[in-house]
Design brief:
Blueprint (H helix, E strand, L loop, with lengths): L12 H4 L4 H4 L7 H19 L1 E2 L1 H5 L1 H10 L6 E5 L5 H6 L37 H14 L8 E6 L6 H13 L3 E7 L10 H11 L1 H14 L3 H18 L3 H6 L2 E7 L3 H12 L5 E6 L7 H5 L6 E2 L18 H15 L3 E5 L9 H6 L4 E3 L4 H13 L3 E7 H4 L3 H9 L6 E5 L16 H6 L5 E3 L4 H13 L4 E4 L23 E4 L3 E7 L3 H11 L2 E4 L2 E3 L3 H10 E11 L4 H11 L5 E7 L9 H7 L4 H18 L1
């Protein structure tokens, strides 16, 4: 047990000798516990240097070792779900030294990535995708006549089994009846009680060769006597139901094996070796402890889910009064609104902590609903509440709202229901990379009828817009970035603003810069240099068309700036407005390019996209030069 994150690289002689799983398989089973200790120490050391997720990874150290020890990866495909369980997997598959580049520009990605390693069978940023992907891989291998005896393994955990997609895939897998292994990593974020002696005994029996030989042989023999076969099946079902939660999986078509101690390396190796000889869908239910081996993480698995980079005390900056993050601004606003309006409820799909809802959950527990990793359900659940007069506020990350797009359209907007979406992590998110970037929400929201879409430029604007969206009759969305804003002064009023009205921040000539949301500050900086008019547009939908047409008549170039995909974004909306009103004024749309932006520091990422002050100014000057040359 470690009580502190190692600041110096620990001694790891066994781990240092492993650059791929083939070398791992040369060890004896007796050496694996020592390897697990070294792997856990190195994981803590490396995450301390780079920051990142580590609680789930600490919990699967023994399981990761056992999987690579027993199965012939990468021929046997191994898919991790959720992806932040995969740090130990990365260390054992040739990326040990690169771990110190994790989440840095040009370094390792925070999640499994196919382009990074042959051992990363499937890219995993969002949760609950592993079983579907594993099933697709297995079927494709069989159809192409490749690796006919190989296994496809999906490791699903950290609450990912709560999503409906996982059960859709389980249902399909049971029907196909082929060699897929689903490992349910139950780390108390999931569905069952802790492992006990009796259940462990039965798990070993259910994975044993003799039991499965008798089981399959008996079914063949009794298939000619349906009543007898039904009775035997029911007896087996009752026996498993008494000591495990596996009846559901058995009914779907899986051979359920569990509960199993996920920190018993030798036991896992034995169990997996037996499973490897079986045929058909298998589900192994493993119980692990999130944060295993690190005292603080074991005591607070939620709070220590991830870690910031550790800075030695001698290098740490002098503490200053910290401005709140946008998430905290939202959380404070929600509490204030709930105090005033008893109809206010908060809903989140497993993002309560990240969305700033801890205080709301404590103060208004009956009005707080964490529906787990189930974005589709969260949105339709909110729609149902709105039908009965509640005022639901759905706190959700931009990238996760993508998963509930049909529900957003069909269940909320089509019925014009009063649901407010507080969309966190809009725009680039830094080290988590493209899987978590909120690059598309303006594009996919503005095309939906009945939607009100707002883009605050600072914390005070965010609070005003949240109230505006809450009071609006119909669906509304406020999208704001990760982290802190420019530090606008806040109060606890619940004032609103006029819908569809922009705010001119600077009067200039020839050029008008229309900024949507978080990029107002660099737009103003560029505007000062260019003597341009600068507007905080505030609303993507409805646009302030009156102001846009006025500016189009008095300026030779309109420039739109947004931290969203430039294709189909707010700039496209402005261009559509100009075309609809027969304006031929030149327009320049600046936003995220047509590419997935890799992980890094947000300021650097914005600069590379040409969305810092210098980039905005340079793009405008190039366009002005082209316009002048055409005269």
């Amino acid at each position: 047990m470690l009580d502190a994150i190692p600041l110096d690289r620990p001694s790891t002689p066994l781990l240092d000798a492993i650059d791929d799983p083939a070398q791992l398989r040369e060890l004896s089973v007796d050496q694996l516990d020592a390897l697990a200790r070294e792997l856990r120490q190195f994981l803590l050391y490396s995450v301390g240097k780079t920051g990142g997720h580590f609680g789930a990874g600490l919990g699967v150290v023994e399981l990761t070792i056992a999987l690579h020890y027993v199965f012939n990866t990468p021929t046997d495909s191994l898919i991790w779900d959720v992806g932040h369980q995969a740090y130990p997997h990365k260390i054992l598959t040739g990326r040990r030294e690169q771990m110190l580049t994790m989440r840095q520009p040009g370094g390792l990605a925070a999640f499994p990535t196919r382009s990074e390693s042959d051992y990363d069978a499937f890219g995993v940023g969002h949760s609950s995708t592993s079983i579907s992907a594993a099933l697709g891989m297995m079927v494709a291998k069989r159809q192409q006549g490749r690796d006919k005896d190989s296994y496809t393994i999906a490791v699903i955990g950290d609450g990912a089994m709560t999503a409906g997609m996982a059960f859709e895939a389980l249902n399909h897998a049971g029907d196909l009846d082929d060699n897929i292994l689903v490992i349910l990593n139950d780390n108390n974020m999931s569905i069952s009680n802790n492992v006990g002696g009796l259940s462990s005994y039965f798990a070993r029996m259910w994975a044993s060769k003799p039991y499965n030989f008798i089981r399959s042989g008996s079914k063949k023999m009794l298939s000619k006597l349906p009543p007898a076969l039904k009775a035997v099946h029911r007896a087996e079902e009752y026996m498993k139901g008494m000591v495990s939660p596996g009846t559901l999986f058995e009914e779907i078509g899986f051979n359920y094996i569990g509960l199993v101690d996920g920190h018993d390396t030798a036991g896992l190796v034995e169990m997996l070796s037996n499973i490897k000889t079986l045929r058909g869908p298998q589900l192994l239910h493993v119980v692990t402890q999130k944060g295993k081996g690190y005292t603080e993480s074991e005591n607070d698995p939620f709070g220590m889910h991830a870690l910031s980079k550790i800075t030695p005390a001698s290098d740490a900056p002098v503490p200053t009064r910290s401005a709140p993050t946008y998430s905290q601004v939202f959380g404070d606003w929600l509490c204030d609104m709930a105090e005033q309006d008893h109809r206010a409820v908060g809903i989140t799909p497993a993002m309560g902590e990240g969305s700033g809802m801890r205080d709301f959950a404590e103060r208004f527990p009956k009005r707080f609903h964490d529906v787990a990793i189930a974005e589709q359900h969260a949105v339709t659940f909110a729609a149902g509440m709105a039908c009965e007069g509640a005022k639901p506020v759905v706190a959700i990350y931009s990238t996760f709202l993508q998963r509930a797009y049909d529900q957003l359209i069909h269940d909320v907007a089509l019925q014009n229901l009063d649901v407010l979406f507080a969309i966190d992590r809009a725009g680039l998110v830094g080290e988590d990379g493209p899987t978590h970037a909120g690059s598309f929400d303006i594009s996919y929201l503005r095309c939906i009828p009945n939607m009100l879409v707002m883009t605050p430029s600072d914390e005070a604007e965010a609070r005003l817009m949240l109230t505006t969206g809450y009071q609006h009759e119909g669906p509304a969305a406020v999208r704001y970035p990760r982290g802190k804003g420019p530090g606008a002064k806040l109060d606890h009023s619940l004032e609103s603003i006029e819908i569809g009205k922009a705010c001119v921040k600077r009067e200039g000539k020839d050029i008008a810069i229309l900024a949507f949301g978080s990029l107002l500050a660099p737009a103003i900086e560029a505007g000062e240099t260019l003597d341009a008019t600068v507007v905080d547009m505030r609303f993507v939908k409805p646009l302030d068309t009156e102001l846009i047409t006025r500016l189009a008549g008095t300026h030779k170039l309109l420039v739109t700036v947004e931290e969203n995909a430039v294709m189909g974004g707010a700039g496209s909306a402005v261009a559509e407005t100009l075309a609809a009103n027969n304006f031929t004024t030149a327009i320049l749309n600046l936003g995220l390019n047509d590419t997935f932006v890799e992980h890094g520091k947000v300021p650097q990422m914005l600069a590379e996209q040409g969305l810092d002050a210098n980039g905005i100014e340079s793009s405008i000057r190039r366009r002005v030069d082209c316009l002048d040359a055409s005269l």
